[in-house]
Design a protein that fits this description.
Blueprint: H1 2-25, H2 28-42, H3 45-57, E1 74-76, E2 79-81, E3 85-92, H4 98-103, E4 108-114, E5 127-130, E6 135-138, H5 147-160, E7 180-185, H6 194-205, E8 211-215, H7 230-245, E9 252-257, H8 263-276, E10 280-283, E11 304-307, H9 310-321, E12 328-331, H10 337-346, E13 350-353, H11 355-360, H12 363-378, H13 384-387
Parallel strand pairs: 3-4, 3-13, 4-7, 7-8, 8-9, 9-10, 10-12, 12-13
Antiparallel strand pairs: 1-2, 5-6, 6-11
Bound molecules: flavin mononucleotide (FMN).
């Protein structure tokens, strides 16, 4: 009997050791099938997210494989990326976890959206998981620390690095390779001068950024999406480009658009962007549409929907906008190397993820890079840049 008890105690004692080891090792299946579902059972989406940001800000990331692939290194907007996979805006809203995200193996990190003044955002709960649908619905409403707090954080990070080595955070944050930093700008809910909200952002945060994103596509700030109209967008972008020309590092200017646009809307946007001389486009933000396939009971929650259903919508938008004259970051519903590859072949020079990371956990970064590298290899591409727009 005591032998049985000893064996049981040994077995029970081994469980936390096994779980701890698998967590540290960053096993893909362990994360997607065991750890992430367990975390989702224990914590609300917002609490789980805050916990992830805390761990990343402390540099606590799974060991993972974090392999570098020569084929994935590329040059876009005049910047060198160690790989084309970035973390999308909304994950590190307050620029707290840049180094941790870099260590996860992302080729670039986009922080924000950051508004001029701090604001709370909408009432909680404001994020919902729909696991059966591989979807998240959020209505955060630009909860933001504001420009000053973000600038202080980026300033500290820059000083902690060897700032003499380069002009921005680029190449200085981590020891594992190069990282490109994007700063995504939003407007305050109560603001009446939207142009000033964005130009102030460029003045205050532009010097830390390799690229700046004008986010005119969040569905959770009333009136924001109307800034995608031809004249509004052209005027806004022209002002932003003028302000950035005054900065010593001259970050690239990108505009992030919604997926819910008609062909006419897209034509207007393409015209406005080319006229105002911005450097690129991010396609796309979350959608207000609710696909009929959704099954989870949260499907009618208000807000922007992200995840798997976006994948096809984005491919169609990329096909419409490509071959354009501007580089595009493709984001929406990327779950594996094939999804990433399809976006690249449809015209995206770079790609980003958010929702899939919520469900699959950090090992997904290495998995997407590995699979993308294999697909490029299989089709005989020597570099990812050769595959951009290959479907056209
Ligand atoms: C919880 C959440 C918050 C987000 N917040 C922002 C944001 O502040 N600014 C922004 O430009 N996009 C934001 N996004 C949109 C993402 O950057 C991305 O465009 C979208 O989720 C599609 O990618 P995905 O399907 O890989 O998640 C948010 C997305 C989610 C899920």
């Amino acid at each position: 009997m005591s032998k049985l008890r000893e064996t049981a105690a040994l077995f029970l004692g081994a469980i936390p050791v096994f779980l701890g080891y698998e967590t540290w090792k960053g096993d893909e299946k362990f994360y997607s099938n065991i750890l992430m579902p367990a975390i989702h059972n224990c914590f609300s989406p917002e609490t789980a997210h805050n916990l992830a940001i805390k761990l990343l800000s402390l540099g606590l990331v799974p060991k993972g494989k974090n392999e570098q692939y020569d084929k994935l290194s590329c040059k876009v907007f005049g910047q060198t990326f160690s790989n084309p996979l970035g973390i999308a805006a909304g994950f590190d809203k307050h620029a707290e976890a840049i180094d941790g995200l870099n260590k996860l193996g992302f080729g670039f990190v986009e922080v924000g959206s950051i508004t001029p003044l701090p604001q709370e955002g909408n009432a909680k709960p404001r994020v919902f998981r729909l696991p059966e649908d591989k979807v998240v619905i959020n209505r955060y409403g630009f909860n933001s620390c504001g420009h000053d707090a973000a600038a202080a954080r980026l300033d500290k990070l820059t000083k902690e690095c060897n700032i003499n080595r380069c002009k921005t955070l680029f190449n200085t944050v981590s020891g594992i390779g190069t990282i490109v930093l994007g700063v995504n700008l939003g407007k305050n809910k109560e603001s009446t001068d939207f142009t000033k909200d964005y130009t102030d952002g460029v003045t205050k945060l532009g010097k830390y950024a390799d690229y700046i994103v004008i986010n005119v596509s969040s569905p959770n700030t009333p009136g924001l999406r109307s800034l995608q109209g031809r004249q509004n967008l052209q005027d806004l972008c022209t002002n932003v480009v003028t302000v950035k020309e005054g900065l010593p590092n001259k970050p690239s200017i990108l505009v992030k658009i919604a997926p819910d646009l008609t062909e006419d809307d897209k034509q207007d946007i393409a015209y406005a962007l080319l006229q105002s001389k911005v450097d690129g486009l991010i396609v796309s933000n979350t959608t207000v549409a609710r696909p009929s396939t959704l099954v989870n009971s949260h499907k009618s929650e208000r807000g922007g929907l992200s995840g798997k259903p976006l994948c096809e919508i984005i491919i169609n938008s990329l096909s419409f906008l490509f071959p354009g004259k501007l580089p595009i970051i493709g984001v929406g519903g990327i779950w594996n190397g094939k999804d990433a590859y399809d976006k690249i072949k449809a015209g995206a020079s770079l790609i980003q993820i958010y929702t899939s990371l919520i469900y699959e956990g950090p090992p997904l970064v290495g998995k997407i890079k590995r699979e993308l590298n294999q697909l490029l290899e299989k089709d005989g591409f020597t570099n990812v840049a050769e595959a951009v727009g290959a479907d056209h």
